Amino acid sequence: MAPAITTLAADAPALSAANTGFMLICSALVMLMTPALAFFYGGMVRVKSTLNMLMMSFISLGIVTILWVLFGFSLAFGTDSGSIIGWSSDYVGLSGIGITELWDGYTIPVYVFAVFQLMFAIITPALISGALADRVKFTAWALFITLWVTLVYFPVAHWVWGTGGWLFEMGVIDFAGGTAVHINAGAAALGVILVIGKRVGFKKDPMRPHSLPLVMLGAGLLWFGWFGFNAGSWLGNDDGVGAVMFVNTQVATAAAMLAWLAYEKIRHGSFTTLGAASGAVAGLVAITPSGGSCSPLGAIAIGAIAGLACAMAVGLKYKFGYDDSLDVVGVHLVGGVIGSLLVGLFATGGVQSKAKGLFYGGGLEQLGKQAVGVFAVLAYSLIASAVLALIIDKTMGMRVSEDDEVSGIDQVEHAETAYDFSGAGGGITGRTTATATTVPSENTKVDA
């Protein structure tokens, strides 16, 4: 994110209509990523959990937006206090900000920066939800989001991107969210699932995606929105850095998808659509922190490494026995760690800043900084998230009952089902009751 990378950013005395319009478009693209994530996750679960999975992403749009306006923006980007947290009374309720007041050092209004950052805050807890599919009470999830963004996301965002934040001051490079978004969410997912346990039937029952077309649609929309996520994080279009990030986003994603598919073919004998979608997301995750510091050739290497490593990592849940339902740990945590650390190898010193990685004569200095950022965020998010989940679980209960999980969380939590088969064959006169109920029950049995 540009505020944490100031080496090449020039002071700007006047509002730029071009940069402001560009950033509003990027904000809209990042907002689209949360519904896209809902479709991506929603297609990967069984029929009986589809709506719940969609809602676990959509509710973040409501909760985090309100919290961000009330106090979140102030905590993340207000005046630094002890290099840990921010606070500015003018940002509380966004009430003390002038409509043409510029974000310090840039040509866009504070309001535009605030709304762009809001979209990052929204999607980060939504990413966690994929690890918890099929088994979490919706009220407990809503409370978890509220507590988590307040106690984990807002402080970590300040560490990484806020002026005065300790990782910011150390010189950790995170262009668009490898630590603050992906490692943060992936570590949180691991912390929560260690507390709430496995799904009923884990390792025993088939839990295949019910709609791969939905998965591919979600992945495609995520890829599209990610250009705003990444290229927009330079907060302007004046010096070409955002353009490099745009190119590197495309390049790394393509390389990761191909690497994942190649691994699948060698290991399992098939090129799967789920593998293509997952590989693309792995590449997007890995290039997020690193794409502003590397060349397109470096982006190919980063994407390929991430695609291969994440494809291997998703199977670790079976080896170690943690039930990461939709591979949030394997893709977002592992991909975020890889992308963040590889800055220390592939940074050229000629794009977003002068910092160079090992392969460009910079030695191990930047790699060391990246490692501190990676493991600090990972440890804090893992522990804090597990504690929050434990508190919620011991007070109101985090999981639905075993019977409700088996029968279907959609009906229990939302009183709805994703697909209504009751009208199958409707309109044909003379159909008997037995015939009319045969198709719905068969579909329900197979898909659930």
TrEMBL record:
<dbReference type="InterPro" id="IPR029020">
    <property type="entry name" value="Ammonium/urea_transptr"/>
</dbReference>
<keyword id="KW-0812">Transmembrane</keyword>
<keyword id="KW-0813">Transport</keyword>
<keyword id="KW-1133">Transmembrane helix</keyword>
<comment type="subunit">
    <text>Homotrimer.</text>
</comment>
<feature type="transmembrane region" description="Helical">
    <location>
        <begin position="53"/>
        <end position="77"/>
    </location>
</feature>
<feature type="transmembrane region" description="Helical">
    <location>
        <begin position="297"/>
        <end position="316"/>
    </location>
</feature>
<protein>
    <recommendedName>
        <fullName>Ammonium transporter</fullName>
    </recommendedName>
</protein>
<dbReference type="InterPro" id="IPR024041">
    <property type="entry name" value="NH4_transpt_AmtB-like_dom"/>
</dbReference>
<dbReference type="Pfam" id="PF00909">
    <property type="entry name" value="Ammonium_transp"/>
</dbReference>
<feature type="transmembrane region" description="Helical">
    <location>
        <begin position="270"/>
        <end position="291"/>
    </location>
</feature>
<comment type="function">
    <text>Involved in the uptake of ammonium/ammonia (NH(4)(+)/NH(3)).</text>
</comment>
<feature type="transmembrane region" description="Helical">
    <location>
        <begin position="328"/>
        <end position="351"/>
    </location>
</feature>
<dbReference type="InterPro" id="IPR018047">
    <property type="entry name" value="Ammonium_transpt_CS"/>
</dbReference>
<feature type="transmembrane region" description="Helical">
    <location>
        <begin position="108"/>
        <end position="128"/>
    </location>
</feature>
<dbReference type="GO" id="GO:0008519">
    <property type="term" value="F:ammonium channel activity"/>
</dbReference>
<dbReference type="GO" id="GO:0005886">
    <property type="term" value="C:plasma membrane"/>
</dbReference>
<feature type="transmembrane region" description="Helical">
    <location>
        <begin position="20"/>
        <end position="41"/>
    </location>
</feature>
<keyword id="KW-0924">Ammonia transport</keyword>
<feature type="transmembrane region" description="Helical">
    <location>
        <begin position="371"/>
        <end position="392"/>
    </location>
</feature>
<comment type="similarity">
    <text>Belongs to the ammonia transporter channel (TC 1.A.11.2) family.</text>
</comment>
<keyword id="KW-1003">Cell membrane</keyword>
<feature type="domain" description="Ammonium transporter AmtB-like">
    <location>
        <begin position="22"/>
        <end position="419"/>
    </location>
</feature>
<keyword id="KW-0472">Membrane</keyword>
<dbReference type="InterPro" id="IPR001905">
    <property type="entry name" value="Ammonium_transpt"/>
</dbReference>
<feature type="transmembrane region" description="Helical">
    <location>
        <begin position="140"/>
        <end position="161"/>
    </location>
</feature>
<feature type="transmembrane region" description="Helical">
    <location>
        <begin position="181"/>
        <end position="200"/>
    </location>
</feature>
<feature type="transmembrane region" description="Helical">
    <location>
        <begin position="241"/>
        <end position="263"/>
    </location>
</feature>
<feature type="transmembrane region" description="Helical">
    <location>
        <begin position="212"/>
        <end position="229"/>
    </location>
</feature>
